[in-house]
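TICKET: design request
STATUS: open
ATTACHED STRUCTURE:
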C-alpha cells in the first residue's frame, strides 16, 4: 500500500505518493500535453515505460533527453529545454515531468518555473536522494562555473511520485549516496529516527522494500513539515543544509563527478559534527555515532587520495548561498535531533576541524 503525504502550502499544496508501483501523474487531467525529461541513463532504463504509463493515463507525451551528469545542470541545457518546449508547442495548460535524480529535477523544475513564466511540473524521482530530498520542497536551480545552485527559483511541483520499484536499477554507489540525506534528517530533526537507522543499516543497504517505504516516508514527512514552516528558506528551512556548506565546496573544488552529492554531504556532516563539538557543546559521543552510522552505511566520512588544499575549500565556501560578508554560516548541532542555523565560526577552528576531518573520527 502506498503512503501519501501532503506538503501544506495553501494553494501550492501538493501530494507525495510513496510506494511500489505508484501512479506517475495522477494530478494531471487526461489530454494534458506533458514534456517528459530524463537523462540519457534513466531514459534508457525507464523512459519508454514511463511514457507508456503517462499515455495510458490519457496524457499526450513528448520526450526530451539530456546528458547524464552534474555538468548538465547549466544554462546551456536550460536553453536546450526551452527550445524543446517551444518545438513541442507547450503552452500554459501543459506540464513538464522530471524523470530522474536530483540533477534532472532541479533543472526541469527551473525550466518549468521560467518557461512562459511558469508551467506545471511533476517530480518522478528515480534516485533515493531525490526521493527523500531534492524532489520535495520546490527548490529548483542550476550551477554556474563559480559555484553550485547559484541560479534558481522556488517553484513547487503539482505532485511528487516516488515509485520505489525504480530504485532496483539504481547503481549501488548512487543508492548509498542518498543515504547521507536520510541520516541528515535524524541529526537535524528526529533523534528516534536516527536511532532507528542505527538498528537497520544492513536492511537499508539491502533495499528492503517495507523498510524503504517507512524510511522514505519519514524523510518526506520531516521535509514537508519544515517546508510548510518556511517555504523560501528565510529561517527554519536552513536546517536542511546540515553538512552542505563544506559539501558543496568539496564538490566544486574536487570536481563535479568525483564526489556524488550525498558523498560530499557525508564528509560535510563529519566536518559539521566536529565544529558542533567545539562550538556548541555537541557531545563527542554523538559526533562519533554520526560517523559510525555513515561508515556502516558505506558512506565516505573523509576525503581520500591526494590532500585537498584547505585554502581552496575555504575560498569555495565564500560563494555558498548562506555566506555573508565572506564569512560562511553553518548549520551546527546542539544534540541529536536539534540544530541551530546561521553559525559563524572563527577561522582557526574552521581550519583545525578540516585537518581533523581528514585524519580521524570525532572524539
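STATUS: resolved
RESOLUTION: sequence designed for all positions
ATTACHED SEQUENCE:
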Amino acid at each position: 500500500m502506498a503512503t501519501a503525504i501532503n506538503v501544506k502550502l495553501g494553494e501550492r499544496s501538493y501530494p507525495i505518493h510513496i510506494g511500489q508501483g505508484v501512479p506517475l501523474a495522477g494530478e494531471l487531467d487526461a489530454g494534458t500535453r506533458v514534456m517528459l525529461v530524463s537523462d540519457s541513463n534513466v531514459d534508457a532504463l525507464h523512459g519508454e515505460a514511463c511514457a507508456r504509463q503517462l499515455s495510458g493515463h490519457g496524457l499526450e507525451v513528448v520526450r526530451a533527453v539530456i546528458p547524464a551528469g552534474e555538468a548538465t545542470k547549466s544554462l546551456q541545457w536550460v536553453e536546450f529545454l526551452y527550445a524543446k518546449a517551444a518545438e513541442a508547442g507547450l503552452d500554459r495548460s501543459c506540464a513538464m515531468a522530471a524523470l530522474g535524480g536530483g540533477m534532472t529535477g532541479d533543472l526541469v523544475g527551473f525550466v518549468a518555473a521560467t518557461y512562459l513564466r511558469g508551467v506545471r511540473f511533476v517530480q518522478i524521482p528515480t534516485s533515493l536522494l531525490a526521493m527523500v530530498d531534492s524532489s520535495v520542497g520546490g527548490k529548483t536551480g542550476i550551477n554556474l562555473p563559480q559555484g553550485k545552485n547559484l541560479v534558481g527559483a522556488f517553484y513547487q511541483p503539482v505532485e511528487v511520485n516516488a515509485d520505489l520499484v525504480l530504485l532496483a536499477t539504481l547503481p549501488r554507489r548512487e543508492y548509498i549516496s542518498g543515504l547521507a540525506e536520510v541520516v541528515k534528517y535524524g541529526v537535524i530533526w528526529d533523534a528516534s529516527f536516527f536511532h532507528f537507522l542505527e538498528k537497520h543499516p544492513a536492511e537499508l543497504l539491502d533495499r528492503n522494500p517495507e523498510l524503504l517505504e517507512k524510511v522514505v516516508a519519514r524523510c518526506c514527512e520531516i521535509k514537508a513539515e519544515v517546508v510548510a514552516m518556511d517555504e523560501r528558506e528565510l529561517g527554519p528551512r536552513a536546517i536542511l543544509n546540515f553538512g552542505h556548506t563544506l559539501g558543496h565546496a568539496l564538490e566544486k573544488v574536487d570536481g563535479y563527478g568525483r564526489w556524488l552529492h550525498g558523498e560530499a554531504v557525508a564528509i560535510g556532516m563529519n566536518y559539521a559534527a566536529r565544529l558542533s563539538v567545539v562550538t556548541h557543546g555537541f557531545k563527542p559521543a554523538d559526533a562519533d555515532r554520526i560517523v559510525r552510522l555513515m561508515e556502516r552505511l558505506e558512506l565516505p566520512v573523509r576525503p581520500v587520495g591526494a590532500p585537498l588544499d584547505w585554502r581552496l575549500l575555504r575560498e569555495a565556501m565564500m560563494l555558498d548561498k548562506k555566506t555573508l560578508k565572506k564569512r560562511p554560516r553553518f548549520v551546527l548541532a546542539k544534540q541529536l535531533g536539534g540544530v541551530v542555523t546561521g553559525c559563524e565560526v572563527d577561522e582557526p577552528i574552521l581550519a583545525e576541524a578540516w585537518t581533523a576531518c581528514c585524519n580521524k573520527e570525532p572524539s
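CLOSING REMARK: The chain has 13 helices and eleven strands. The first strand starts at residue 3 and ends at 7.
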